[in-house]
């Protein structure tokens, strides 16, 4: 289950941000997870729940996951469409396509408690 190592890496990065901001705790974390990122959302959430039990900065933190769809974009007309649609652009019917989304795993939003 590689989600555990991903959670540890994410939380280590967040701990550095907490120190830099002189924050007392993490309130919430929003993570963007691409359809093709290889991350199992339930396993990631479970790993986070286990992690936060042993790390006081995260004890009350809420994890929110935003699913990012797998997308393609036509190089001819710029149309963006689902990876799972047809092989050609639905607008201009050309085959010049690149993949533009769905592999993300990134912290989108971090809410910290900072007391004066």
Automatic annotation (TrEMBL):
GO terms for biological process: protein maturation. The keyword Metal-binding applies. Ni(2+) binds at residue 2. Transmembrane segments: none annotated. It comes from the Bacteria. Pfam families: HypA (PF01155). GO terms for molecular function: nickel cation binding; zinc ion binding. Keywords: Metal-binding, Nickel, Zinc. The keyword Amino-acid biosynthesis does not apply. Zn(2+) binds at residues 74, 77, 89, 92. Belongs to the HypA/HybF family. Involved in the maturation of [NiFe] hydrogenases. Required for nickel insertion into the metal center of the hydrogenase. HAMAP family: HypA_HybF (MF_00213). This is Hydrogenase maturation factor HypA. The gene is hypA.
